[in-house]
Amino acid sequence: MKILKRQYIILAMLLFAIFFPLLTQNEYLVHVMTLSFIWMIGVYGLNLLAGYTGYLSLAHAGFFAIGAYSLGLLTVKTQMNFWAAFVLALVITSVIGFLVGLIALRTKEHFFAIYTLCVGYIIYLVIDKWDSLTEGVRGLIGIPAPGNIGPISFQTPLSQYYLVLSILLLSVLVMYRIIHSLTGRTYIAIRNSEELAQTIGISTIKNKLAAFVLSTFFAGLSGALYASFIRFIGPDIGHTVITFDLLTYLLVGGIGTLSGPIVGTVLVVWISQQLQFLQDYRMLIFGPVLTLLVIFYPRGIVGAIASWNNKRAGRTKQLALKDTQKDDRFASSEIAPENQVKEG
Fold first, then answer.
1. Contact, 90 vs 215, CB < 8 A?
2. What distance in Å separates the CA atoms of residue 231 and residue 65, rounded to the nearest whole number?
3. 37, 226, 235, 239: least buried by Cβ within 10 Å?
4. pTM attached to this predicted model
5. Residue 259 falls inside a structural domain
């Protein structure tokens, strides 16, 4: 029954995403939803590393920017075919992630977070100061929209919406397969106790590096989609503020949960849209809320709902067990027919 209910919720969310552009004629709302899908992909990459492996990378915005600028530079300055540049941008991001991970993963806990924070800021400075390559603060303009695939064109906002949605669904499916595989259980074992994982023969270095590279891959994928959708990028997309925005989406939705990135991103992005008149004071609003959420519900909204369901199921089982025990006591208190005293 619980599995069927979950399937209905997933189906309802999928149908809503598919028919959303048809439910509203407001192109701005479609634009915001498309951006939400792009951010979700990046948050899934962060969730794989921080939520399931236990390593918080604060360089995520840097890899997001690498994916975006790789696509932009390859298409604008070398006039490369869009989809070839798109694939190459993912390769470049993953290779740089591999090289960074080789050094970063020699550290642990807060040292790892500080090291990746420094790496992310260095990436931001390179983009900002290397004017001859990245155009610096002027930004990179003229990035083309996704190229046609056969007769299918992606020149309109609606077609781009469905393209990003398709890539998001594929990313969620891949993430689901990873998490529910032996590899995913290995990541969870490392998160729970790296020393214990080593004692049972798990190669923690290799698995952590694989998780780190996968995380940067999804960040690069998100960045490349962002560049092709906005078609203008500047150094700000690699700033640490973007990393903390992605982390906020993850913490609100539920770190270490499969649906947390979707819930958190949609909720925070749409609330931010409604509070645009308070943009300068946004952190004064989200800061205390996020602090309270981390204190009382460390696994976010999705984790809190799961905990409530588990507690309710536990209480139901306890009540059923008590009723069974009462019935057993009542049955044992009756005199068995063969032990009854016969009259006469």
1. no
2. 13
3. 239
4. 0.87
5. no
Cβ pair 104, 119 in contact under 8 A: yes
Overall number of domains in the chain = 1
Q: Is the pLDDT of residue 63 over 90?
A: yes
Residue 317 lies in a domain: no
Give 251's contacts (C-beta < 8 A, 6+ positions apart): 264, 290, 293, 294, 300
Q: What is the pLDDT of residues 261-283, one digit of tens each?
A: 999 999 888 888 777 766 666 66
Tokens of 188: 């969870």
Read out DSSP for 109-172?
HHHHHHHHHHHHHHHHHHHHH-HHHH-GGG-EE-PPPPPPBTTB---SHHHHHHHHHHHHHHHH
Asked if residue 252 belongs to a domain, the reply is: no
Write out the H or E segment, with its range, that includes residue 232.
Answer: strand 232-233
Q: What is the residue whose two structure tokens read 């499916």? A: 173
pLDDT score at 186: 93
Instruction: Please tell me what DSSP assigns to residue 233.
Output: E
Q: 3-state DSSP: the chain helix, strand, coil percent, rounded to 5?
A: 80, 0, 20
In a domain, 133, yes or no: yes
Nearest alpha-carbon partner for 122 in 141, 144, 147, 103: 103
* Full residue range of the structural domain in which residue 110 is found: 2-239
Cα gap 43→243, rounded to integer Å: 9
Q: How many CB atoms lie within 10 A of CB 56?
A: 20
Cα separation of 98 and 213, whole Å?
Answer: 6
Phi, psi of 232 (to 5 degrees): -150, 130
For residue 29, the tally of other CB atoms under 10 A from its CB is: 15
What integer is the mean pLDDT of 33-48?
94
Q: For position 27, what pLDDT does the model report?
A: 87
For 34, counting Cβ atoms within 10 Å of its Cβ (0-12 exposed, 13-18 middle, 19+ buried), the class is buried
pLDDT above 50 (res 342):
no
